[in-house]
Amino acid sequence: MKSGVPSGRSAAISVGWVPRTLHHAALCVRDLDASLRFYRDGIGLAVLMDHRFDGDWPALFGAHSHTLRSVFLGDPASTDAGIVELVVFDGGVEDAALPGAPTAGFFLVSFFVDVDATLARLRELDLGGRARRVEQPGPSGAVPMATVRDPDGVLVELIGAGPPGA
pLDDT value at position 103? Predict the structure, then answer.
């Protein structure tokens, strides 16, 4: 190791092979309409793409179907990162374990939002379940935070964001 940089393959990876942004995270959903109501109507994401794809999904994902529907949701002004993909496989999927305390593996999806307005929309839509709320100290004061559950039980974190452009 020279000047803090490991030698060999890991050095090559650390000098240009590291991803710069996360493009999207995919959530396999049972009920696309309920998930769209949650993420689009409740959280406020826009539909960026809605398309059916045929492929060898059994080989790639271990799915039971060769056809899936993919709906990309995000910010139309920033379509190259921060996207939530809702995936529905023809023939459905097996249910996951019931949500509970954190375990190893996938934990949550997090959004910067107006927490009060988002929780109000979710309540109007009868989505999200019982919200858990806290305030955490931040550099500019208290930051409101909440967690809710999407229609498939995925934990969704809402973090208070200032006004756009702030």
Answer: 56
- Are the C-beta atoms of residues 41 and 124 closer than 8 Å to each other? no
Q: Which domains does the chain have, with CATH numbers?
A: 24-92+106-160 (3.10.180.10)
In the three-class reduction of DSSP (H, G, I as helix; E, B as strand; rest coil), residue 55 is classed as coil
Quote the CA–CA distance of 34 and 123 in Å, as a whole number.
14
Across the range 114-125, mean pLDDT stands at: 96
Stretch (H or E) spanning 33:
helix 32-36
CA dihedral for 113, 116, 121, 122, sign (positive or negative): positive
Q: What pTM value is reported for the model?
A: 0.79
pLDDT tens for each residue of 72-94: 999 999 887 789 999 998 877 67
Q: And the tokens for 41?
A: 């109507």
Beta strands in 6-66 (DSSP E): 24-28, 46-54
Q: How far is residue 114's CA from residue 98's CA, in Å, rounded to a whole number?
A: 28
What's the rounded Cα separation, in Å, for the pair 147 and 101? 13
The mean pLDDT value for 125-135 works out to 95
d(CA 70, CA 49): 8
pLDDT score for 138? 87
∠45-48-51 over CA atoms, to 5°? 125
